[in-house]
Specification:
Blueprint: E1 5-7, E2 10-12, E3 16-18, H1 27-35, E4 41-47, H2 48-51, H3 54-57, E5 71-76, H4 80-93, E6 97-102, H5 107-111, H6 122-135, E7 140-145, H7 152-167, E8 172-176, H8 191-199, E9 205-208, H9 214-224, E10 228-231, H10 240-249, H11 260-277, H12 281-295, H13 302-310, H14 315-325, H15 330-334
Parallel strand pairs: 3-10, 4-5, 5-6, 6-7, 7-8, 8-9, 9-10
Antiparallel strand pairs: 1-2
Helix pairs in contact: 1-11, 4-6, 6-7, 11-12, 11-14, 13-14
The chain binds flavin mononucleotide.
Residues 19-23, 44-45, 74, 101, 103, 143, 176, 184, 188, 208-211, 230, 232-234 line the site of flavin mononucleotide (FMN).
Length: 342
């Protein structure tokens, strides 16, 4: 079962990574993914116009940590020159890979003909890809969806992109198996990966979509012929998915689910990391809410725990409520800093 995946010059010892998730994959979530066994992590997407602005890049949020390598940066843009400059700037900042986002379905992105809208412009996609690839020496990948929508024209454009990047020898193609207009609704259709791998067996394809548990991830990998998996929402508030996937790929038994206390310690560790980056405390609390939603999914009294934790108005309250719901003695709660308790 132990399989590796190569993305250009980078060899991942297990065939998955923590995917880019805007608003989630800042340093704390990436560190968790890394410490739980992800061989590669990605920062959320960044506009090329921001990436070339030194004042923006200087912000702590954008610089990769020394303990995060290998780490990829993802660029959102619609024309080659600035995308290439952005890629250079991000590699200069320390990123080890560059991905180009032609998949984002957010209406404000589509209105500007960026992200998923680019799925209808194969020649432009190729121009941007080639400009970026020629500008940097690190691996360059692209993230696409299974077309803009289900029309014949969108399908044709999808296949043109696949065929042309395959011919260029792209380092990897990441495919979210939904159309752009589907956004995140409906089921991801992994048959599209099967078709791509059938036609282009030499192309490294990373599949994305509905990877929320180990068995589904393994089944999709096997049945589609994908080379690797991009773990996205499934690991947010559930880094144990990454731990378990690594165990499965290393041929080890899946570890038992984390105890309540172990969950609590990881939540406190995560919160502590968030507090160090997002200031003041009210901002950290607001940012952390989405992770609380994820973490409490495992809790036997999910609804009550979730409501209580979301209702915490101060950091002291939030920390002590986490201690309460996760059965942590007061001394464990107060020592929430420190190394990740694995
Ligand atoms: C809140 C949110 C933010 C996302 N941000 C990004 C992003 O910045 N870049 C990207 O390529 N994909 C992004 N995605 C898409 C995911 O990487 C992934 O392809 C998608 O969620 C499907 O996988 P899943 O169903 O396993 O979550 C985002 C998805 C969500 C829900």
């Amino acid at each position: 079962m132990h399989r590796q995946v190569r993305i250009g010059g980078l060899l991942l010892d297990v065939p998955f990574f923590q995917a880019a998730l805007s608003g989630y994959t800042s340093y704390p979530a990436r560190r968790l993914a890394k410490d739980f066994g992800a061989p590669l992590v990605w920062a959320g997407l960044i506009l090329a116009s921001s990436a070339v602005d030194r004042r923006v890049l200087r912000k702590r949020l954008y610089a990769p940590g020394d303990d995060e390598h290998p780490i990829g940066a993802q660029i959102l843009w619609h024309e080659p020159e600035l995308a290439a400059k952005a890629a250079k700037a991000l590699v200069g900042l320390g990123y080890d890979l560059i991905d180009l986002n032609f998949a984002c379905p957010a209406p404000k992105v589509l209105r500007r003909q960026r992200g998923g809208a680019m799925m209808m412009y194969p020649s432009k996609v190729l121009e941007i890809y080639k400009a970026v690839r020629d500008a940097v020496t690190v691996p360059v990948t692209i993230k696409i969806r299974a077309g803009l929508d289900q029309t014949d024209l969108a399908r044709t454009c999808f296949w043109e992109i696949v065929e042309r990047v395959a011919a260029e020898g792209i380092d990897a193609l990441v495919i979210h198996c939904r159309t752009v207009l589907q956004r995140y609704s409906g089921k991801a259709d992994w048959a599209v990966i099967c078709q791509v791998k059938g036609l282009y067996p030499g192309l490294t394809v990373i599949g994305s979509g509905d990877l929320f548990d180990v068995q589904t991830a393994l089944n999709n990998l096997r049945s589609s012929g994908a080379d690797g998996l991009a773990i996205a929402r499934g690991a947010m508030g559930n880094p144990w998915l990454i731990r378990d996937l690594r165990a499965a790929f290393e041929g080890r038994p899946i570890p038992p689910p984390p105890s309540l206390q172990e969950q609590g310690q990881v939540i406190l560790w995560h919160l502590d990391q968030v507090m160090q980056i997002y200031k003041p405390a009210s901002r950290a609390i607001a940012y952390f809410r989405k992770f609380i939603v994820g973490y409490t999914k495992r809790h036997a009294q999910r609804k009550q725990a979730l409501l209580d934790l979301l209702g915490a108005g101060t950091m002291e309250q939030l920390i002590s409520r986490i201690g309460h719901w996760y059965g942590l003695a007061a001394d464990r709660v107060s020592r929430s800093g420190g190394p990740l308790p694995l």
